[in-house]
Amino acid sequence: MSRISSTYGKQANDRSVKSASKMYGGNYLTDSGKSLTLSGEQQLRGSQQLTKSGKSTKSSFADSIRTSTGALEQEYIKSLQQQVYLLELENNHLRSQAVKATELHPTMAAEAEKMLRELKALQAKVDALQLENFRKEGAAEVLQQKVNGLTQKLAQYEASHSEERERFDKDSAEARRERDMYQRDVGRLQMRLGELQEDFDHKLSDLKASETKVATLRGQLEAALDKLAAADSALTEERAQTARLEARVRVLEVELASTNTKGLERNIRELRDENLALKERLRREQSKAHEETLLRSKTFEETSALVKQNAALEQKVVELERQIEAERDKSHQWAGHASVESDELVRLREREKTLEYQVSSGVEEVAKLRLKVQQLTQQLNEASETKDAGTIDLTVARRRLQEAENSQASLSDQLSRLQRDKAELVAHVDSLQQELMKRESEKDGLARALDRAELRLNELQGEVTRLQQLQATRWSEVEKMADTLRSAAHSNSVLFDSY
Predict the structure, then answer these.
(1) What is the largest CA-CA distance in the chain?
(2) What percent of the chain has pLDDT over 90?
(3) Between 362 and 325, where is the model more confident?
């Protein structure tokens, strides 16, 4: 009986090898290029064939019990060949997934190069802004030279009293207009600073939201990595169980010749159930791996969106820097206006001293005229005593007295005008001092706001650097995952080639 069963086993093995080569085109276990092109529909068809073959195998086992042991061995070997073929299909699918994972690395490198180009563009913009700042400083020096020239011209104009008064009136009107203009500029700048503060707060809230989202994605990625590690360990265990099952199958093939039909059927049924359970577990692990792949792709897309959002935030930070630079230029212009106003204040003080000197000289001249009037009155009294001899002198004295009185009246009018001019000048000087103090306080406020903006800009740049480092860490983790998948695919290919 054992001799007959061994003869039947050899014939069944020859027929099964020939039928397998006819059915699958020969070396299907070694030709990985053809097996990689199989689609999901072929896998489904293979599983259906496996189900049908299981049913047919069950019926054939019932017939083989009635017929012969050789037919039973032949059907069992065919079933095992079909199962091995399905395992090869699953291995090819895992290889395709590993290839897809390795194809992500050039995309990541391209994204890194794109970010580097954007950083270089930002550096070029910063250099351009610095060059523009240098040009504006040169323009400020030219304006300072013009202010010095105007100061010299004003000193020359003070040589003439009438021209000085006319220029003083013009300067007063110009100062009023500049004061109104400065007040309007200050109002606009305050509104602009409020808008910039609101925009800055909005950008800060967006940055905090992006940080929260990055933390969430980090947690999801860590969970996905844990699941992938669990799937790898489960896959390794399944491979070990498959190897043990194959060893057991070989042992059972050796024992098949010496066992009876009932024991063989029971062992085959147990092996089939165990193989189906292992295949179901492998299918579940494969679905989990597919879900992990989808999760990784989703995480990559969200990371790319965050990179784009960070680039937009960097662009907005550059715009804020440009606006801060404009505000700094305006503060420099205000400093120039403040220096002009201080020069005007010095000139007005000198003018005040000149007017005070003129008033004092007018008072002295009035005193001299009064003394002269007293002298003329005394001469008139003396002339009245000598009426006959001094009639002509009396007439001359009266004329001189009238001229002195007229001169005294004109000097009194001039003195009153000078006093009014002095009062107006003092009021204008006080207003200019208040305006200058106000400009100094506004300048200090703008300097503090500029310092705060620069500090916030440094913080944002540090945050961008941290995000870039985090992204580099994530890329390295993804590369490690790709290497792990490649090694797993290689081990699968070696395992199935050994089969």
Answers:
(1) 193
(2) 0
(3) 325
Amino acid code (one letter) for 195: E
Structure tokens at 137: 């400083």
What's the one-letter identity of residue 412?
S
The sign one gets for the Cα dihedral 396, 397, 398, 404 is positive
Residue appearing with tokens 């019926």 = 59
Per-chain mean pLDDT for the chain: 63
Question: What's the CA gap between 178 and 172, in Å, rounded?
Answer: 10
Cα-based distances in Å from 112 to 33, 117, 221: 33, 9, 20
Cα 310 to Cα 308: distance, rounded to the nearest angstrom: 5
CA distances from 360 to 247, 366, 376, 406 (A): 128, 10, 24, 20
And the tokens for 478?
């993804």
| Overall average pLDDT of the 290-315 stretch | 62
pLDDT in tens, 93-115: 777 776 776 666 566 556 657 76
Which residues in 101-130 are b (16+ Cβ under 10 Å) and which e? beebeeebeebeeeeeeeeeebeeeeeeee
- Calpha distance 315→408 (Å, rounded): 76
How many Å apart are CA 54 and CA 65, to the nearest integer? Answer: 16
Domain segments of the chain as ranges: 2-498
